[in-house]
Amino acid sequence: MGGAAGDMILASLISAGAPAGEVEESVRGLGLPVRLELRRVEISGIAALGLRVDAPEEHAHRTFRDIRRLIEGSGLPERAAGRALAAFGLLAAAEGRVHGVPPEEVAFHEVGAADSIADIVGACAALELLGAETVSCGPLPMGSGVVEAAHGPLPVPGPATLEVLRGCRVRWPEEEREMTTPTGAALLRALTGGEFSDAAPPMVLGAAGYGAGTARLRGAPNLLRAVVGRLEGPVGGLEVLEANIDDAPGEVLGAAVERLLEAGAPDAWLEPVVMKRGRGAYKLCALARRQDRERLARLMMRETGSLGVRHHGVGRTVAERRLVEVELPYGRCRVKVGSLDGEDFAVAPEHADAARLARESGRPLPRVYDDARRAASELLRQSP
Ligand SMILES: O=C([S-])c1cc(C(=O)S)c[n+]([C@@H]2O[C@H](COP(=O)(O)O)[C@@H](O)[C@H]2O)c1
Ligand code: NI
């Protein structure tokens, strides 16, 4: 990686296959009339994409509160919205610490302009279009020197970059350039959970894409490379998040479970508990990939009003699974097949498909389950 800025991250994802038109539409869904201007460039003989966001001039500063409203009302997929909010939350907290104002009140300057919102929201939408369940990345390069910003000349790394990356591993190449901007740092920290490791996870490689930076570096091509792959095992392990809640109605708790699942939790559930002073309550629990922990913990708090979330690492033994599709007389249904050591041992219709078919055909749900299971077993017998 040469450097990390918001435009380079988005360009690399488009270069790796995320359709530019759909990414642009997602950003326009925020009510921002932006255009993504992509240009093909060659750096060290590598064909890369450079990105410039064409956005109308904005005079008003946007606060984090304004940006949160924009993203929440955008109709972005749940996980993309959550990732974008987490990135802006990190930026707001960092800028707030640098300038001594509460995060909600932070008025973004460069980072609040429409092009930076486009970089962050566009990158999260692009990841969704690529089907990226998880993101990992090595320690970010810092650089040195001075940059001109709204407040005047700033030391490199920018104070906000340093704040965003507190607690993260970074590296210091000998380059008198800004190599990681606050937006680039916030996006990558939000997407990875801040666990930057030199060891890339084992994967089956798919497409690679290159996002171009503008500065010329001495010791590396100024490219950010995105590699898409199918992971061979869980990355960074799993954690259980949990909060005891005695003051939320059932509707809120049920909705929280749904939101957590939509936001990428592999599982979420409620357990009845008896809290201190004999109060009957619920424990809201969710399984989270480690890099999603902060994002999902924040979602849990926001959805329930809980002031804290516990988390602890857990192990998991999993069977191999695959989806097959069966044609029933009243529609198609996906069925999950579980296998151990090459032997299929579980055949489970996808609940959403079965429920839809039951509703549309007027058949009882258990009957649809039986039909789908039988059809899938037959299919597996014919093509083991
Ligand atoms: O305008 C502000 S508030 C600003 C603050 C900081 C701090 O580090 S504080 C840095 N910058 C610089 O602006 C450009 C653009 O950054 P993006 O994150 O929007 O890509 C970059 O050089 C920052 O270092 C601006
Ligand atoms: Ni600032």
Automatic annotation (TrEMBL):
EC number of this enzyme: 4.99.1.12
Any matching Pfam family: Ni_insertion
Keywords: Lyase, Nickel
EC class of the enzyme, as a word: lyase
A GO term, aspect molecular function: nickel cation binding
Catalytic reaction(s) noted: Ni(II)-pyridinium-3,5-bisthiocarboxylate mononucleotide = pyridinium-3,5-bisthiocarboxylate mononucleotide + Ni(2+)
Physiological role: Involved in the biosynthesis of a nickel-pincer cofactor ((SCS)Ni(II) pincer complex). Binds Ni(2+), and functions in nickel delivery to pyridinium-3,5-bisthiocarboxylic acid mononucleotide (P2TMN), to form the mature cofactor. Is thus probably required for the activation of nickel-pincer cofactor-dependent enzymes.
Similarity remark: Belongs to the LarC family.
The name this protein goes by in its record: Pyridinium-3,5-bisthiocarboxylic acid mononucleotide nickel insertion protein
Species: Rubrobacter xylanophilus (strain DSM 9941 / JCM 11954 / NBRC 16129 / PRD-1)
